Amino acid sequence: MSEGLFISLEGIDGSGKTTLIQYLQDKLATYPLLRIREPGGTAISEKIRELLLNIDNYLITARTEAILYAAARSQVVEQLIKPALDEGKLVLADRYVDSTMAYQGYGRGLDLQFLFTLNQLCTSGLLPDATILLDITPQVGEKRRKHEEADRLEQEGREFQARVREGYLQLALKEPKRFYVVNANREFRHVAEDAWGQIMSLLIKRGWLPGEN
């Protein structure tokens, strides 16, 4: 392997990203792999995560929220993602730039061009080779999270999640070559099979066949 491969997972809260990324990590155990989550991944980014998700920080404005996410992303890109890709590794990310566009853009109503420029600055234009979007209704997502303590964004409710979902679908329409939309309302085994099939096709295109890495 000489060139890294960058795959991100996206979706509204309760879509099953965390479960799927663990499944994919196990399936990709023989590959040189870096798994990250956003916000987070580095000591600095995790500190920013604490600020963003703490329910006590309800006074954070939408613009400040977006800038904090961008700061955490900038750190993880420079410290972890770019070096891993330069080393020919496979990077698997639980959220990336599309989360900001969906949550702070479509969800919060911030200007999309502002957010696009912000993301460009904080990542130097780095985008995933592929983005798997777990599409789920807010109702199902809420039901799946009912026994979990909600963080600051999860407390925004169904209408907010509906706007975020619509945002994700709009982003997928604009970049059909990068996005792969998976119906996540189904049983996990079907979702996992669907996502894994897409990743396998990417690995084959890159010549990263099982047993040859």
Architecture overview:
With 213 residues, the protein is α/β, with parallel strands linked by helices. It has one domain (5-206): Rossmann fold, CATH 3.40.50. It is built from eight helices and five strands. The termini are close together. The model has no long low-confidence stretch (mean pLDDT 92).
Main attributes of the structure:
Rossmann fold; 5-stranded parallel sheet; 8 helices; globular
Give a brief rundown of this model:
With 213 residues, the chain is of the alpha/beta class.
| SS-based class | alpha/beta
Helix content: 40-55%
Strand order of the largest sheet: 2-3-1-4-5
CATH topology: Rossmann fold
Strand coverage percent: 5-15%
Number of strands: 5
> On the 0-100 scale, what is the average pLDDT?
92
Q: Work out the radius of gyration.
A: 17 Å
Distance between the termini: 7 Å
What's the architecture, going by CATH?
A: 3-Layer(aba) Sandwich
CATH class: Alpha Beta
Q: Spans with pLDDT under 50 lasting ≥5 residues?
A: none
Principal-axes shape call = globular
What is the fold's blueprint, element by element?
Blueprint: E1 5-10, H1 17-27, E2 33-37, H2 43-53, H3 62-86, E3 90-94, H4 97-107, H5 112-123, E4 130-135, H6 138-144, H7 158-174, E5 179-183, H8 188-206
Parallel strand pairs: 1-3, 1-4, 2-3, 4-5
